[in-house]
Amino acid sequence: MVQPKPGCVWFVGAGPGDPDLITVKGRGLIERAGAILFAGSLVSEAATRWAPADCVIVDSKDMTLEDMSAWLITQAARCETVVRLQTGDPGLYGALIELVQPLDAAGVPVQVVPGVSSAMASAAAAVESLTLPEVTQTVILTRMEGRTPMPEGESLQELAAHHSTLCIFLSITLLGKVTAALSAAGWSRDAPVVVVHKASWPGEEKIVRGTVATIQALCREAKLVSQSMIIASPTLGARHWTTLAKSKLYDASFTHRFRQASVPASQLTLDTP
Ligand code: SAH
To answer: Residue 16 C-alpha to ligand 1 middle, in angstroms?
Structure first.
């Protein structure tokens, strides 16, 4: 007897919270899913809003990894499109590989649809750019060491020594350790830090701005204990700077693949020192 072809398990990034921030592709998969396994309350709304009426929808919050892979394998034998819906992007702190391996072993095809990470949504909420010319051109996505140990060379103090942008996940309850690591790496007490809680969640987003010295007390006052992104960056607040090095890409003297320079560099009056 010919075995039925197994369905595909799609790991779909649901985005940071606002259901409108899922990708068009992710939404299309939910609309034709026979089964959806979603991760916690963050993404339940997207799942229930667009799933077909007969779709089996399950919250994974009380499941172990083994429970989840067994469930996904069973559903893939039953329906063509199975969705594992995760917050933000599935490739960041999402146990993606731990779930893919048992599916590979069972011969179930897997695909991944990226999502808008909370790091990007938090920067957007605060109208901040994570990179700026001549300030920093590097973004580090990381976390404070908690129950998950950090690999060698990746302590926050070592990473902060680069003085580039740090987007720190999963660490709001360890904010004191975060600021201690920044100080130990040479960040000044006045260096700006922004914490965004529930970035993009309609009506629930909170933005707390402070410095290495003040951010912990400000977040305690605002009662932020979960679902928060900590961004420490020399770019923060640039919206209000009066001097700013402009990106070469839009510079009139800069020729690139799509545009010839319209003004020779020598004729330009630069409005930044
Ligand atoms: N894959 C997710 C991250 C999951 S880890 C992503 O790409 O965003 C969970 C951590 O992500 C939380 O502890 C918090 O630091 C951050 N996070 C998730 N959603 C968030 C949101 N809407 N606003 C701020 N931080 C968020």
So the answer is: 7
